[in-house]
Description:
The protein is an alpha/beta fold and 330 residues long. The chain has 2 domains: 39-132 and 255-324, 3-Layer(aba) Sandwich (D-Maltodextrin-Binding Protein, domain 2), CATH 3.40.190; 133-246, D-Maltodextrin-Binding Protein, domain 2, CATH 3.40.190.10. Helix content is 47%, strand content 19%. The chain contains 12 helices and 10 strands. The protein has helices spanning 2-33, 50-66, 81-87, 103-106, 108-111, 147-156, 169-181, 193-202, 212-220, 267-282, 284-294, 303-324; strands at 39-43, 70-74, 96-101, 123-138, 159-163, 185-189, 207-211, 225-229, 254-262, 296-298. Strands 1, 2, 3, 4, 5, 6, 7, 8, 9 and 10 form a 10-stranded mixed beta sheet that branches. Helix 2 (50-66) links the parallel strand 1 and strand 2 (70-74). It is globular.
Amino acid sequence: MLKPRTRILPAVASSLVAALAISDVGVAQQVATYPTKPINLTIALAAGGAADIIGRAVGQKLHERWGQPVVIENKGGANTQVATSQFIRSAPDGYNLLLTAEHTFTVNPTLYEKLAYDPKKDFTPISGLITISQALVMHPSIQAKSVSELVILSKEKPLTYASLGAGSGPHLSMVMLQQMSGLKAEPVQYRGGGPALADVIAGHVPLLFVATGLVVEPWRGGQVKLLGVGAERRLPEIPDLPAIEETLPGFRASVWFGLVGPGDMPREIVDRLNGAIQQIIAEPEFHKRFMAPNYFEPIPGDATAFSAKIKADASRWEKVIKEAGLKVKG
C-alpha cells in the first residue's frame, strides 16, 4: 500500500518546486516593471494639513520619477481609524499605499479599548517621511522664562492648557511633560489647533503644545512666548529656541508621518518604494521647497529601520498612556 504513495510524492514535490519557481519569476517580473499602473495613496488625515502637504509633494515626485499617476484620497477621522479600517482590505501589490500619522501604530493600540485593525499584522512598514516637532507655547502674561520656572509657577497656582482631545499629540505631549517635570495643569478641550492657538494669543488659556511651524510668526511678533521645541535638538531654522530636551533629557514632543502598505507586501516592492522616497526627501530642492518652510524634519532609513522606530515609539507612548490611566472606547 505504501509503494503508490512513494511514487506520487516525487511528482508532487516536482510540481511544488515548479510552481514556486514560476511564482518567484512572477514576483521578479512584477518588481522589475513596477509600477505599471496608477498608484492609489490614501492619506489618513483631512486635506490641507501636514500629511496632505507631504503626501501630495511625494506623490508628484513619484509620478515624475516613474511616469505613473499617484491618485490621492484623503480619509480623515477617528484618529486615523476611518482610513486604516478600510485600507487593510486592499491588495498588497504595491498599488495601494497609506500615509498615516504615528498614532495609528504608537498610540491607538494602547489608548483605545478596541481597534478595527491589528497594527502589527495588517500593515507593511515602507518608509518614514517627516517628523514635526511641537513647540511649548505660552501667553506672554505668564512670568516664566524656562520650563523649570513654569513648573514652579504651576505648583503655586495650577494652570490650564489647550488640548485637542484625549490622545491627541498636544494632549499626550503635555501629559508627558507633567509626568517628567511635575507641572500642574488641567486640560481645556478644543476642536482644532487653530482655535486653540487663537485662545492662547487672546489670553483665554495660557499653555499649548502645537506644531512649531504654526507659531513661529506669532512668536516673532510678540504675541506668544515659546519655551522650547520638542525635537531631539534645536531646529536649524530657529537655533536660538532651545529644545526642551536640554532641560528634561529624553523629552520628545513631536508627531511623525510615514508610508505603509497592506500586510504581506513583497519585500522587493517595499525596498523599491523606500529607496525612491528616501531619495526624494533628501533632495536639496525638495527640502528647500517643502521641508524647511514647514519645519518638517526628514525620517531617514530603510523599511527595517522604520519598523524599529514604530516599535520603539509604541513602547514609549504605551508607558505614558498607562501611567496617566488614559483609555478611550473604540
